[in-house]
Fold this protein.
Amino acid sequence: MSVDQSAMLRVENIHKNYGKEKVLEDISFEVKGGETKVIIGPSGTGKSTLLRCINQLTTPDSGRVWLDGIDITNSVADINQVRQSIGMVFQDFNLFSHLSALDNVRLGLVKVKKMDKREASQEAMRQLIRVGLEDKAASYPAELSGGQQQRVSIARALAMGPKLMLFDEPTSALDPELIGEVLGVMKDLAESGMTMLVVSHELGFARSICDEIIFIEKGVIVEQGSPEVLFGNPRHQRTREFLSKINELYGETGKK
Amino acid sequence: MALGLVVGILLALGQVYGRRGVVIFSSIYEQIFRSIPALVLLFLFFFGLSLLGVNISAFFSAILALGLRSSAYQSQIFRGAIQSIREGQMVAARSVGMSKFQAIRHVILPQALRLSIPAWSNEYSIVVKDTSLAYAVGVIELVREGRYIIVRTFEPMIIYITIALIYLVLTYTGNKLLGYLEEKSRIPGFATEHGER
């Protein structure tokens, strides 16, 4: 793989097995600064594992991950430090359920970044405003809708000032009418120049904002390319089959 | 009770998050202390410690015996609560850059301790009454104090009823306080509210 200095994220030959089962096999790709890439593929093909391998929540068996030119798989790298620069958004939100929306966003600032409390509150509020939830600052997760919870979790990740945002099926657990508000926030984020790697089945979203789509199946990258190419004229039969199946489920691509 | 609380939380954390050695140690500890009757433990600590050359008062040996015993029971309360917290909470905490310790301290324990209060108030009631067993090693606790008074007054029923009432008050106020704490620390929108289904 050619060494590209402008790559914000570079994933090199990631392998991961769970027991005998090969989950990821020789995955390599890169995301340039400001780019958004979407990973699609059938469930159980290691997409989530791949994201977790990137911020080392799961340790890959072999392979390297470079963030902004630094090898973060290297054991010398302080992983807690590294994770601050990689925001992560989960399928089931995972907001801290004992904290209000504001405190959810603020906790990392106060405890990890050791920010002054008042300053942290202001920063947390700024992030809540960014996702349009300033009026819900005092609400607890259980009092918020799924879409609102997911937006708080995006604010929580953004507050740490990440260089890269990972989204693990951010809208899969949401009611259809709530998906739009989350995608809206993500779209703004992508347009503001954030580097993003998104696992999603929202092909409309993928088509409208992403620079490249990566199709993964059974732990290997089958095909990657611009949305025009993948949707218009996929090279592989499997890609075509998968996309048409998703289309049946979620409606025509690119309708949004 | 306080001794049991501190040791109990440490044991529970050890069992859930500890390395192999720690898990084995806390499991054995917990097994032993839950398997021996309180009375036998009291004697073991009272006589055992002095045999080992540790000279402490009967009162202190009773505190140790009952406290460590309670810690074993409490560790199971906390372990259950900690394990009922969804794994995503830990993962999310780590993903914002918290260390494992920070995640436990700021995310897992605040939630787990809230969940522990009902079972913990149960344990409190038991321990309060178990203090009466310290009678056996000569600690001047409620029952022994009562015996002294009975010897002077020859009014066993009145004295025992009074003792029973004192235990009742201790347990009742304790549980009331814990109930209040549970109510105060309830996470809005999280648990079922009173009168709601």
